[in-house]
Amino acid sequence: MAVENVAVAPVDQGFWTRTRKVGAVLVALGLLGAVLFGALATDQQARFTLSEDSAGAALEINGTVGAILFGLVALAAGAAMLAGLPKRWFTLVLGVGLVGFLLSFLCWQVSAAPTGQNFMPLVNVLRGTFVLALPLIFGALAGVLCERSGVVNVAIEGQLLMGAFSGALFGSISGSVWVGLVAAAIGGAFISLLLAVFAIRYLVDQVVMGIVLNLLAVGVTGFLYERLMQTDAESYNSAPRFSNWEIPLLSDIPLLGPVLFRGNIFLYLGLLLVLVIHIALFRTRWGLRTRAVGEHPTAADTLGVKVLRLRYLNVVLAGVVAGIGGASYTLALYSFTKNMIGGKGFIALAALIFGRWSPTGALLAALFFGFADQLATYLSAINSTIPSQFLAMLPYLATILAVAGLVGRVRAPAADGKPYIKG
Amino acid sequence: MSSVNPGSPDKEPATEAQAAQTALGNTEQTESATTPKQPTPEGRPTLGRLFLDNLWAANTFTVTLLSLVLAMVVGAILMIVSDPEVLATYSYITARPTDALNASWTLVSEAYGNLFKGAVLDPDAVGFNAALSPISETLTYTAPLVFTGLSVALAFRGGLFNIGAQGQAIMGVILAALAGFLLPLPPGLHLLVAVLAGALGGAIWGFIPGILKARTGAHEVINTIMLNYVAVYFLTWIIVQNGVQDPNRADAISKTVDTSAQLPRLLGDGLRVHAGIILAVLATAAVAWLLNRSTLGFELRAVGANPDASRTAGISVTKTYILIMVFAGALAGLGGSQMVLGTTASALTPLVVAQIGFDGILVALLGRVKPWGVALAALLFGALQAGGNRMQSYSGISLELVTVLQALIVIFIAAPALVKAIFQLRAARAARLQTSLAKGW
C-alpha cells in the first residue's frame, strides 16, 4: 500500500492480535449461521447433486440440521482462533470457518427454496464459476504482468473490451477463430501500448491514463459497433466460435471432469497462463528482473537491467493476455455488444489486489468472485430472499476490507505507479 | 502565505499552473534539463513579437486548443474509416483523388457542423427558443459536470485521487430522489432538502474512503473504484423496492420526484436549462474561495504538497484527508442530485447518472484542477455532449464519438510533450514543471 505512514493503526498489540480479531468475526458469523440460518431453514432435505440437474448422486442433509451444524463448525473455528492458535494453522482454520459459514448459508437457502427445487447442481455451479471467472483471470494476470514491473494497470477494462471487439471484428471478417484470437491479442496490446508510451515515455500519471484509456476503448468500440456491427451484423459481428474440447479420460472424473476438462481453449489457456506466469515470475531471469524493476528500479538499473524496455515489454504482454481474455467472450460465448465487459475489468483489478499481486492469488480471488457471481444467479433462480445485488457487491466489499488491512495486509510492488526517470 | 516561516509545509508556492502540471504528470522538466539553454537574443522583443512567440509556445491555452484540434482530426479519421461508402472512394484514390477528398470532407464537415449547431448556435434557427436551444442544452449538460469536476479537482489539490465521483454521484442521486418523492414538504423547502440530501449521500460515500485512507492508509484509488460499483448495485437494488419503484411500472424505474422539489427552469418551459447552472457557478466560486482563501484550503494544499511536512507543522493530516473526501463527495453528490432534480430525468433508473462521475475526472484534468478552469472544461464537455446529440440525429454519427473526442483531448492534454513535438511548439517560458503526481497505489 501507499508507503505514507498515515497514522498506521497499531496492529498486533495486546490481547487483540489479528488472529483473535478474525476469530471474533468468525464466532459472530458462526452464531449467525447456527441461530439465524438454523431458524430460517426448513425441514426439507438440502441436496447438493454432483451433476447438472437434480438427478444422480448427491450429498444430502436436513436443512435445519445442516445450517446449525455448519454454523457450529464456523463457531468452533473462530473459538479456536480466540483461544490462541499457532500462526501456521491460521489459513487452514480460517478456510474451515469460512466454508462452514458458507455451507450453513447454503443449507438454509437450498432447503428454503420452493418445493422441488431443493437441490444445488454442483457441476453447474462450478462450471458457471469458471466461466464467470475466466475474464477475471485473464484480466488479473494482465494486472500482475503490468504492476509487478511497476506500471499501474487500471486500463484492464479497456484492454478486455478492445480484445473482445477486435476478436469479433476480425474473426467475422476472416471467418477464422485463430485470426480472431490473434487480432484480439493485438487489440489488447494496442491499448496497452498506449498506456506504456504515455506512462513511460511521457510520464503521464498511470491511474489517469488508465481511466482515460478505458473511456477511449468504450468510445472507439462503441462508435465502430454502431457504425459497422449494428448496420451489418452479418459481415462484421458474426465471428466463428471455439468449440469445447473434451480431454479424454480426465473429463470422466466426477465433478472435476465436466468442470475442468470439457471447456474451450480459453479455459485451458487461462489456467495454463496462471502456471506459466507463476513459474516465470518466480523462477526465471525475466521474473527476477521484473520484480526487481517493480520494487526498486534504480537498483535494477545499476545492475544493468534495462528498466524502461522491460516495462514496455511487460505492459504490452499484459495487453496481449487481457486481449485474449476479451476474446473469451466474443470468440466463445456471445457476439459483441456495446460496453460488453461492463465492469469486469475492475473486478479483475480487485482480484489482482485481493490476490496480492501474485498469479495464484489472482486465480483464487477470481474464482472466489466468479463463485459469488454464480451464486447470485443461482439464488435468484430459486427465488431467494437474498437480493442478488448484495452478492454482486461482495467482490468489491471484500477488496475494500483487504486493502484496509482487516483481513491481512496487502502490499503493492514498491515502485508500482512511479515512473522511472533515469539519471 | 506572506509570513513564510522556514518550517512551512507549503513548499509548493502554489501557482495554479504548477499544480495543474503536477497533477497531469509532466515531462518537460526532464526535457528542459537535457536541452542546453538557448542563448538570449539581443535586444528587447516587441510586444507583437512576444504575442506571436507565446501563441506558438507550449502554454496551457495553446496546448489545450491544439489538443482539441488533434482529437477532432482523429475523430474525423474514425468517421471516414467507419463509413463504407466513403471508404469505397479511397479504393481509386490514385485515379480520382477528388472523389475521396470530397466525400470525406462532406462527411466530416457535416458531422462537425452539426456538432457546432447543436452546441452553440444554429444560424438557420428562427425564434427565441430555437436560437437559444443549443446554449440551453449545453448548459444543461454542463451543470452536473461542473460539480463532479470540482469534486475530483478539490481532492486532487489535497493529494487524493478521487475516482469515486461516479459512486458519490449515484448515492447523491438516490438520496435526492428519495427526499424528492417521499417527503411531503412545501415548495422551496422541499427543493432545499432534496439538494442537501444529495450532498449528504455523496458526502457519506466520500467519507468511507477518506477515513479508510486516514486510519489505515488504504489507497483511496482502490477504495473509490470499488465503492463506485457498490453504489451501482445499491442503486439497482433500491429502485425495485416497495415504496420506491413506480407502482405502475414493471421495469426498474422509481417514482417521479415531486414538482416542489425540482429545480426551476430559467428560460421558460420550452428550454431545458435550469437553476443547476447557477448553483454550479456558485459552487465554483465557493471552491475557489475554499482553496485559495480559507485556512482549510491552505491546509489542504499543504497536505497535498507534502503530508509529512504538514504533520510536522501541526496540521492534522488525518482530519484533512477525511474533510477533503467529505467535501469532494458532497460536491459529486450535488452533481448527481441534479440528474433527478433538474430536467434530464425526474425518476431513478439504473443509468440515471450516466457517466458524469468518470467525465468529472476528465473535466478536472482538462481544467488543470483549478476551479474556474474546471468550470470552463465542463462547459466544453457539456457543449460536446449537446452537439453530439444533434450530430447523432442529423448526421447519424454515434454519440460515442463524443466519448472518443473527450478521452483524446485529455490524453493529449496530459502529454503536452507530445503535442509540443507534433506541432513543433516552443518551450513556454513560464512552464516550470514539477515531478509527476504519480505515487502509485
TrEMBL record, chain B:
It is found in: Cell membrane. Its main location: membrane. Pfam families: BPD_transp_2. It is a multi-pass membrane protein. Residues 24-37 have a biased composition (Polar residues). Residues 1-45 are annotated as: Disordered. This is ABC transporter permease.
